[in-house]
Design brief:
The chain folds into four domains: 67 residues, Winged helix-like DNA-binding domain superfamily/Winged helix DNA-binding domain (Arc Repressor Mutant, subunit A, Orthogonal Bundle); 41 residues, no CATH class; 81 residues, SH3 type barrels (Roll); 91 residues, 2-Layer Sandwich (Alpha-Beta Plaits). 40% of the residues lie in helices and 27% in strands. It contains eleven helices and twelve strands. It is elongated and about 85 Å long.
Length: 312
């Protein structure tokens, strides 16, 4: 047991206090062990380093001594994860801080300074239940069990207004889209796919009712849905400026059908969930995307433009 304790102390000391530019000599390791009530000699440290390497940890020899280089994640990888957590509006400030601290514990004190250097943080959710929602939902998905939950909206004053009835859903997946975290599932009452924002869900409970997953392509659903708004799924023909191909693939996937192409533009057929957010997406490109058909979708866009003009 003493040997195991010593090995753990050597490993943790090197992991948190060394990197390639800051190696630690044998005397410093012995001094650290002594402060923890563990006696060791130089040859003991040599043996411990060799044993740690044989166990799969990577302890390298540096200019002045040893350093740990076997982190599960590189510093740049940790920084990407931490920046994503900072920018995630669906996490509360408290939960963001807890997750970032766990990630920071995976590196040494020198690289930790680089990881803590960012100061930007997006607006954060006030719903502390989101973490527990995720835990309950992934359990329900694994067991293929239905869930119930309460759902709320915010009014103009920022006050939470809970909807009157409970929701019952077969959960299929969890998806991040446009900086929102969504549950994708099958609505039992109406027998159709649905999505709900996790930061607006409360009191998620697993039911005993189990289900067989419907034939439902989550990736296709995401490609057809604009910012998770529901609407009528429709085959739409679009004429687009040639340099927008990547934008179309990003939105609809590579399965969209190109029907015509020239030097300046291309025409394609896509399956889209037609909703106000679909029309907003078309507006984004300032005329570089044109709806050719069907006629009812073109007319609805015109009517939307007229309503906007009349109000301004």
């Amino acid at each position: 047991m003493k040997n195991k304790q010593r090995l753990l102390e050597v490993l943790n000391y090197l992991r948190t206090n060394s990197n390639e530019d800051h190696s630690i000599n044998t005397e410093s390791i012995i001094s650290h062990l002594d402060s923890r009530g563990i006696r060791a000699e130089r040859k003991t440290i040599y043996s411990d380093v060799r044993e740690l390497n044989e166990m799969g940890y990577t302890i390298e020899s540096g200019r002045e001594g040893y350093y740990f280089s076997g982190g599960a994640l590189e510093t740049a990888e940790l920084r990407v994860l931490i920046d994503l957590i900072r920018a995630s509006s669906f996490l509360s400030r408290k939960k963001s801080a807890e997750i970032m601290e766990k990630l920071l514990e995976m590196t040494n004190r020198y690289d930790r300074r680089l990881l803590e250097s960012g100061d930007y943080e997006n607006n954060k959710s006030a719903n502390e239940q989101i973490y527990y929602n995720v835990s309950a939902i992934i359990g329900a998905i694994a067991q293929q069990r239905a869930i119930t939950f309460k759902y709320f909206d915010y009014d103009a004053s920022g006050q939470k207004r809970q909807r009157k009835h409970d929701y019952k859903v077969f959960p299929y997946d969890l998806i991040v889209d446009s900086d929102r975290y969504y549950l994708i599932g099958w609505q039992i009452k109406y027998s159709q796919p649905v999505n709900y924002r996790l930061d607006k869900m409360e009191k998620v409970e697993l039911l005993d009712e189990r289900y067989e997953k419907k034939q439902f392509d989550v990736a296709a659903y995401m490609n057809q849905t604009f910012r998770m708004f529901s609407g009528q799924k429709t085959n739409v023909t679009l004429k687009c400026r040639g340099n927008l191909y990547d934008e179309l693939v990003k939105q609809f996937g590579s399965d969209m059908i190109i029907t015509d192409m020239d030097e300046d533009s291309f025409t394609c057929n896509v399956n889209a969930t037609v909703s106000p957010t679909f029309y907003a997406w078309v507006f984004t490109f300032d005329g570089a995307v044109t709806i050719l058909s069907p006629e009812e979708v073109r007319n609805e866009l015109k009517q939307m433009c007229e309503r906007i003009i009349s109000r301004h």
